[in-house]
Design goal:
With 211 residues, this protein is mainly α. The chain is built from 7 helices and 2 strands; from the N terminus they run H-H-H-E-E-H-H-H-H.
Length: 211
Amino acid sequence: MVAKEETTNFASEIKLFGLYDKNFEDKCDISLRELISYKTPKTNVYVPHTAGRYQVKRFRKTQCPIIERLTNTLMRHGRNNGKKTIAIQIVKQTLDIVQLTTNRNPISVILEAVSNAGPREDSARTGSGGVVKKTAVDVSPLRRVNMGLYLIATGARESAFRNIRNIAECLADELIACAAVNFTYFLIISIIVYNLIWSRIFKWIKSSFYI
């Protein structure tokens, strides 16, 4: 479980990058609040780099600050592994763009984006004896957060590839579009595909081709 906020007195308020505080209207999905770390003692950092070993134990990554998880997700694929300083700079530029565009706290926008990004329904292969069919299943809250971060980073990376716009601008667009549930961007289109009930799709395809 995520550690709760502790009242600690500091000489000055700790803000992310010295600019963004945690005093904003919380619109995070109620089912994901225990899995998204944004108001905990570990989030009292100036830079999203806590050097925690969150992979050691199962579910420990829920204690990792959500901004740092987004930063880590950008370090893909192979040639970008370990380049966290570059990823931190990308996230800093993204937060600045989001604030200028929406006139809101960018951390709040990221929380809404991650809440909307994860698919609520997926398909699983069921059956035995060589007869396999796909069945609609519910997605767990933790996987919703993981898939949301993955889709946000993937959409920004593909949008920035061979484009005059840099990845910070594309990432800001993905976050703003997902927070507003804009159906024109890669992320929301991917969510629609994930949320479709595959058994119904197969019935529709079968009926369409055999008419």
